[in-house]
């Protein structure tokens, strides 16, 4: 699987994938606007409606100001309570801040070697947590919604994938967006692995640091096979029809129908 995002986009069965928009949020590594991604019914994701990022505690003062200029209506922080205490969000005291941890202290440890197996286990165990995170997007006041965790890859990757699929973004476009994190976090993760000498541990950590398009594509296939798709999965977790409709309303821009001239 290639890491070049442009080539991946050109290879998708859905056709061209809209340009993925990086955001200049110093010093976040993995912040981007999901606007422009295609939806199944002649539409696209609205610009400045859904943003994904790594932890906002990274931000410099200029970065904090850049986020404020966006005027988000909600910032959804998926990190654990311990992570939030260790590296507090600069927006934690604001009304727009919403802490929704996907992992709890008493959760059983997940030591599976493959990242995709960890994703499957988390989805199996906690549909209600994922549905609550998606509901937080659906129920947010009007305005941009920011979703982030620590690196903006795994927890954020799963929640964003569920949201995008709920509004009809094709699997391959979701997978391409997920794989963007590989390039954004590559140097950061390489530095974190620099002192690992044990070959088996290094292989495991390299796998957990990965963000391959096929990992997300297989995760979406698993949701279809096991739950009938993303919408049934989210309904199982407690998401209701009103919230699914709200996601469509806030995130999807419909393309105008093409007009043709009558021939006489």
Automatic annotation (TrEMBL):
Ranges in a coiled coil: none
Pfam assignment, any one: Y_phosphatase3
EC number: 3.1.3.48
Gene3D superfamilies, A to Z: Protein tyrosine phosphatase superfamily
UniProt enzyme class: hydrolase
Domain Tyrosine specific protein phosphatases as annotated: residue spans: 128-184
Keywords: Hydrolase
UniProt xrefs under InterPro entries: Prot-tyrosine_phosphatase-like, Tyr/Ser_Pase_IphP-type, Tyr_Pase_AS, Tyr_Pase_dom
GO molecular function: protein tyrosine phosphatase activity
Family statement drawn from the similarity comment of this UniProt entry: Belongs to the protein-tyrosine phosphatase family.
Official protein name in the record: Tyrosine-protein phosphatase
């Amino acid at each position: 699987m290639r890491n070049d995002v442009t080539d991946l986009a050109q290879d998708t069965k859905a056709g061209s994938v809209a340009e993925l928009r990086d955001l200049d949020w110093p010093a976040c590594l993995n912040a981007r606007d999901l606007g422009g991604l295609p939806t199944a019914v002649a539409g696209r994701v609205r610009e400045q409606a859904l943003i994904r990022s790594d932890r906002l505690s990274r931000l410099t003062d200029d970065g904090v100001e850049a986020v404020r200029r966006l005027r988000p209506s909600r910032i959804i922080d998926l990190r654990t309570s311990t992570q939030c205490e260790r590296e507090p969000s600069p927006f934690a005291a604001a009304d727009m801040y919403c802490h929704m941890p996907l992992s709890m202290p008493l959760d059983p440890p997940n030591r599976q070697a493959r990242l995709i197996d960890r994703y499957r286990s988390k989805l199996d165990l906690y549909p209600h947590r994922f549905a609550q995170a998606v509901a937080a997007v659906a129920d947010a006041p009007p305005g941009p919604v920011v979703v982030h965790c620590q690196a903006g890859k795994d927890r954020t990757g799963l929640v964003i994938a569920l949201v995008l699929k709920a509004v009809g973004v094709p699997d391959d476009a979701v997978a391409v967006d997920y794989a963007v994190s590989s390039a954004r976090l590559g140097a950061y993760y390489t530095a974190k692995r620099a002192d690992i000498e044990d070959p088996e541990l290094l292989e495991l950590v390299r796998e957990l640091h990965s963000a391959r398009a096929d990992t997300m594509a297989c995760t979406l296939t698993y949701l279809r096979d096991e739950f009938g798709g993303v919408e049934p999965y989210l309904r199982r977790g407690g998401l209701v029809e009103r919230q699914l409709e709200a996601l469509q309303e806030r995130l999807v821009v419909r393309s105008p129908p093409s007009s043709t001239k009558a021939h006489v």
